[in-house]
Amino acid sequence: MVEILPSILSADFARLGEEITRVERAGVSMLHVDVMDGHFVPNITIGPPVVKSIRKITKLTLDVHLMITDPDRYAPAFIEAGADQISVHQEVCPHLDRTLRMIQSEGALAGVVLNPSTPVSTLEEVLDLADYVLVMSVNPGFGGQQFLPNSLNRVRALEARRRQRGLAFHIEMDGGLGPENVLDAVQAGCDWVVAGSSIFHSDDPETAVKRMQQLARQATAVRA
Ligand code: DX5
Ligand code: ZN
Q1: Per residue in 173-217, pLDDT tens?
Q2: Does 9 contact ligand 1 (Cβ within 6 A)?
Q3: Per-residue pLDDT tens digits for 26-56
């Protein structure tokens, strides 16, 4: 089943609990949490204490996207704070195999993220190890950017490898996603669709989520 993951980056941080409750009411089961360090990307967001606070108020799966230069150092603290799954950028992991295994041994699912300019082929040797692959459909760092259409080809390439090799990793997409392109994303092979501004900057986040869920279901029917 395809999941829509609201990204709290676009939520009102002063009312974060309420914002999360709103999307919970729409029936989501996963929440996307963006961690930025001001080095890997030109923006700074949140750390483990905020994840710990979120963990206390929700049972949703917390999908933590680490846009930081040293994920090996910080991933355990995010898992300890309550992250269920952690994704790390291929671009900052010279020992990607080791990093993914470390995350799994700490008790979380391990994902690997690709920037728009990083070839899918760089993941060839870890596709049987990763629990999920996150394809960035914008250059990471900010919400509200425009979707890069070539990302769909990249998802198709991953989905082809998954099928050919009989693998089970999930495919996630993040950046510039909303009602206008969720159908394309799911048809290309996405299982998890992240959306920030199209949900939290809409007039009614609950309705925005439901609309995307409905479109995703239609696309799944076509894919099947
Ligand atoms: C961007 C973040 C995204 C961001 C997406 O670097 O990784 O998760 O929240 O926001 P939208 O959906 O507004 O592009
Ligand atoms: Zn993200």
Answers
A1: 999 999 999 999 999 999 999 999 999 999 999 999 999 999 999
A2: yes
A3: 999 999 999 999 999 999 999 999 999 999 9
The CATH number given to whatever domain includes residue 164 is: 3.20.20.70
Ligand 1 in reach of 137 Cβ (< 6 A):
no
The rounded distance, in Å, linking the Cα atoms of 130 and 170 is 9
Encoded amino acid at 54, one letter: I
Domain count, the chain: 1
The residue segments making up the domain with residue 142 are 3-223
**If you measure from the C-alpha of residue 182 to the centroid of ligand 1, how many angstroms do you get, rounded to a whole number?**
14
Report CA(60)–ligand 2 centroid distance (Å). Answer: 16
- Any long-range contacts for 211-216 (C-beta under 8 Å, 24+ apart)? 211/179, 212/4, 212/178, 212/179, 212/182, 213/4, 213/26, 213/27, 213/28, 215/179, 215/182, 215/183, 215/186, 216/2, 216/4, 216/182, 216/183, 216/186
In angstroms, rounded to a whole number, what is the distance separating the alpha carbons of residues 138 and 140? Answer: 6
